Automatic annotation (TrEMBL):
<dbReference type="Pfam" id="PF13302">
    <property type="entry name" value="Acetyltransf_3"/>
</dbReference>
<dbReference type="InterPro" id="IPR051531">
    <property type="entry name" value="N-acetyltransferase"/>
</dbReference>
<comment type="similarity">
    <text>Belongs to the acetyltransferase family. RimJ subfamily.</text>
</comment>
<keyword id="KW-0808">Transferase</keyword>
<feature type="domain" description="N-acetyltransferase">
    <location>
        <begin position="24"/>
        <end position="184"/>
    </location>
</feature>
<protein>
    <submittedName>
        <fullName>GNAT family N-acetyltransferase</fullName>
    </submittedName>
</protein>
<keyword id="KW-0012">Acyltransferase</keyword>
<dbReference type="InterPro" id="IPR000182">
    <property type="entry name" value="GNAT_dom"/>
</dbReference>
<dbReference type="InterPro" id="IPR016181">
    <property type="entry name" value="Acyl_CoA_acyltransferase"/>
</dbReference>
Amino acid sequence: MSQSLPHLLTSRLLLRALESDQAAVLSSLANGPKIADNTANIPSPYTLETARTFIDEMQDKYRAGDLLSLGMHLRETGELIGIVSLRLNARHHYGHLGGWVAAHCRNQGYAAEAARAVMDFGFTELGLYRVGSQCFGRNKESARVMEKIGLLYEGCMRAAFLKNGVYEDLLGFATVRNDWERLA
């Protein structure tokens, strides 16, 4: 694995590491509507210190082979609009997709575009065999993104996650290298 976080280009996005001067923007965006509510590990409130720590640890987590996490930036303006990640399990050659898009940029295809690029990078550059993800059963938007990028629905784990005092169903989606190669 390369020592540096990659820069990935899509038709509309530049996916790259965040810089320390983006901490305030990251904090503001991550505190937006539905971000913490629809994700497993994003705290609410998402403080400036949390943002700084996240940015400071991005490179080290990638070098350790644990996590590829990149900021979603609009190619035209450079504006940060979200985060896309691939939690890595080298032993099982598995990547778990995650991410979020700022409220003002939702429903424009950015999440699918970023997730597709990171998934492709995982298969081509990181040697993954399987890429998958999960979302809460109530999060139809995330489920739609997963299906759009070619992940197949694998089932529902009922009441598998306790979020804000409520047991949430988790919907599972994944694809394996052979299926990805056929579609690519």
